[in-house]
Specification:
about 5% helix; about 170 residues; binds FE2/S2 (inorganic) cluster; mainly beta; 11 strands; globular; four-stranded antiparallel beta sheet; 1 helix
Length: about 170
């Protein structure tokens, strides 16, 4: 069903935080602190549907000052090199990753202390995760942020099954 579909091109990014769930995310809502988002698409009747039926659809958004986001982030898949979206699902065992409370500017997984660098393509900088968090291409459409394509690398849970990924 539509609520379990992975993020699709054209989906609108909406807040996942309970107090504002479903509200479209504006640039002004974003900063160097992680904001969790769901992709919101349409169901078969054309009604809005938040794709939260699959917890693996949760996304992590950041907005950094110009010039701070660097390779291996795919800058073409960001908004103006300043807003970047990743899968928020840890590539180790699928926990939801947060901002590090130890090292500013890093992400940390609460389950086994996996660490990621959100300004550098969410590469692994510590702990057991085998791969970076998958980057999701996004673009700006008026006031809204919109999915511009599928994940650039296999996100959890596809990353252990390249064949399944190839068939997506
Ligand atoms: Fe994230 Fe293990 S699930 S480090």
């Amino acid at each position: 069903t539509a609520d379990k579909m992975p993020p699709l091109e054209g989906d609108i990014l909406v807040h996942a935080e309970e107090s504002k769930e479903g509200r479209p995310i504006a640039l002004a809502d974003l900063s160097d602190q992680l904001v969790r988002a769901w992709p919101m698409g349409k169901d078969e009747n054309g009604a809005d549907v938040i794709r939260k039926g699959d917890p693996n659809n949760i996304l992590a958004l950041y907005r950094f000052p110009a010039g701070e986001i660097v390779a291996p982030t795919n800058l073409e898949a960001t908004v103006d090199g300043q807003v970047v979206a990743y899968s928020d699902v840890c590539t180790h065992a699928g926990c939801s990753v947060s901002d590090s409370d130890i090292n500013a500017g890093e992400m940390r997984c609460p389950c086994h202390s996996g660490q990621f660098a959100p300004k550098r393509g969410a590469v692994v900088i510590g702990g057991p995760p085998p791969k970076p968090l998958a980057q999701l291409p996004i673009r700006q459409d008026g006031e809204r942020l919109v999915v511009a394509g599928f994940f650039l690398t296999p996100p959890y849970p596809y990353h252990n099954n390249e064949a399944e990924w190839d068939n997506l």
